[in-house]
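Exercise 7b. Backbone tokens:
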């Protein structure tokens, strides 16, 4: 691979790379505001100026103050280039740290802060603001401006999700390019010139497409803020864990920002993965964390409606095991969940196989509006993982389960998850079953219809795996502690199996994942043999 030198270090690059992109791939940051690896180059902030030291040196005429003559005299200085547009080439030598570059960075930083308001104490970007970072790295000097700053509109509602502060805006145009390139909706543009520039909405429009929160996320300063996160937390109190979005079958990689003091998730945003979501997420995906905190099931219960009462965990497992044991195995149904992890689904499927159950169903949400960018039409994160756990196609749905109950073919149900495309009214026949056990994280139609409910952990509270629509298995890690007494579904199923006289071979998470790996290899091997035979 060809290389060039950046500050004396060999940097490999690919054809078509610019200096800043090649450096970024190596984890080296050249200061910048307007450049973003997922957006077209705009080249307006000038913060990424570098000195090209090889080849024919470019110079530009200047007037320099001569202290002996006490006057300005003609001189020259190095003509710097912006790294976001300058192409990488073999043998190129570049400096991003020499005296000329440092002076240019200091000057650009001073210019950008010239009219910037001192909003840091109340700004949501504080603590992760590039203006703050680069001030300490490249300027670190008092403002020389003595006159009043240029005032612009503040707290402008751009739409249902975003608020704009024009005084903080440095006109990097990232937000405009996100709307144009990601959402394909030219709803933002800029008007005026110089110090009077500001971002504006298209006449008669709101910022209301499916990727509005990405306009806030790419903003390097505090000009765009999310109405959801606004004034709710300071970033230095938040910790971060890697996650996988539960919004749809794309399986966008996420960062989960949570406050460990309260065990509360405050926001989700994309984690870079070039094979899945690149740098992006949709609004619905970034807001899925709200579901984790709402309508949780926190205690085991028995009964239905007004007769539903809370009971202890051990009593609930014993009751569930007793109810299910009363049902002939040919009348028992297992319901896997496209919303739960592969670990949970595998444990449930394995328990069903040990019991001799032949009726497997899949509970899943009914779908949403997809697009050609990220949003998959299937708004379930792990349909493929549930199918793998079952060891074959899962063509029977919850509505098929209702039909089978009405025909008398099913008299007992062990179901995983809250999600179902069927409404509670459609599940009325299930409420006649005394042997209907639900393992769930949240309130929903299925657990509401169940006679015994066991709470289990949500994806933010456990280690797990989702398999996306492309068949890619992606693991996520626990971010926050589970509510007291609530365990992952796979652990609960191990306990339930033991109470029914069926020991599942899973003592640890590693045991479950080893079984998943073995099953996946078996499926792959079988597919390969079939292809060879064909």
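Sequence design result:
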């Amino acid at each position: 691979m060809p290389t060039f030198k950046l500050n004396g270090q060999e940097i490999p690059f690919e054809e078509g790379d610019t200096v800043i992109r090649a450096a970024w791939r190596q984890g080296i940051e050249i200061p910048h505001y307007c450049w973003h690896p997922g957006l077209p180059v705009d080249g307006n902030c000038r913060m990424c100026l570098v000195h090209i030291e090889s080849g024919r040196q470019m110079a530009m005429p200047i007037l320099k103050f001569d202290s002996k003559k006490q006057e300005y005299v003609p001189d020259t200085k190095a003509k710097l280039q912006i790294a976001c547009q300058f192409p990488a080439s073999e043998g190129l030598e570049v400096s991003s740290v020499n005296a000329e570059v440092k002076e240019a960075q200091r000057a650009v930083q001073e210019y950008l802060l010239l009219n910037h308001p001192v909003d840091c104490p109340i700004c949501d970007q504080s603590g992760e603001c590039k203006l703050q970072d680069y001030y300490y790295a490249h300027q670190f000097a008092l403002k020389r401006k003595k006159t009043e700053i240029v005032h612009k509109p503040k707290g402008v509602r751009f739409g249902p999700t975003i608020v704009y502060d024009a005084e903080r805006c440095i006109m990097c145009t990232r937000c405009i390019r996100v709307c144009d390139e990601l959402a394909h909706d030219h709803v933002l543009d800029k008007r005026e010139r110089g110090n009077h520039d500001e971002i504006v909405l298209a006449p008669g429009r709101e910022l209301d497409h499916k990727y509005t929160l990405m306009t806030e996320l790419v903003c390097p300063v505090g000009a765009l803020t999310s109405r959801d996160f606004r004034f709710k937390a300071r970033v230095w109190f938040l910790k971060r864990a890697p996650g996988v979005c539960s919004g749809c079958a794309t399986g966008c990689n996420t960062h989960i920002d949570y406050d460990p003091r309260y065990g509360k998730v405050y926001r989700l945003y994309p984690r870079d993965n070039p094979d899945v979501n690149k740098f992006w997420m949709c609004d619905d995906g970034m807001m899925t964390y709200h579901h984790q905190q709402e309508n949780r099931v926190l205690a085991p219960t028995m009964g239905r409606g007004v007769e539903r009462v809370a009971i202890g965990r051990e009593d609930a497992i014993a009751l569930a095991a007793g109810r299910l044991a009363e049902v002939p195995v040919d009348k028992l149904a297992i319901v896997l969940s496209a919303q739960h992890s592969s670990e949970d689904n595998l444990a449930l499927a394995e328990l069903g196989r040990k019991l001799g159950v032949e009726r497997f169903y899949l509970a899943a949400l009914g779908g949403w509006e997809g697009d050609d960018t990220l949003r998959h039409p299937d708004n379930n994160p792990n349909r493929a993982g549930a199918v793998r756990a079952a060891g074959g196609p899962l063509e029977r749905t919850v509505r098929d389960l209702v039909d089978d109950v009405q025909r008398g073919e099913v008299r007992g149900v062990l179901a995983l998850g809250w999600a179902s495309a069927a409404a509670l009214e459609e599940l009325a026949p299930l409420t006649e079953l005394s042997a209907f056990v639900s393992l769930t994280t949240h309130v929903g139609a299925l657990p509401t219809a169940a006679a015994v409910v066991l709470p289990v952990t949500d994806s933010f509270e456990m280690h797990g795996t989702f398999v996306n629509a492309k068949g890619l298995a992606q693991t996520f890690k626990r971010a926050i502690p589970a509510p007291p007494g609530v365990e992952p579904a796979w652990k609960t199923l191990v306990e339930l199996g033991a109470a029914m006289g069926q020991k599942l071979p899973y003592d640890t998470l590693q045991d479950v994942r080893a079984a998943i790996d073995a099953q996946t290899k078996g499926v792959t091997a079988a597919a390969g043999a079939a292809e060879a035979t064909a």
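Instructor comment: Residues 392 and 523 are 9 Å apart (CA to CA). The domain at 301-529 is CATH 3.40.50.740 (Rossmann fold).
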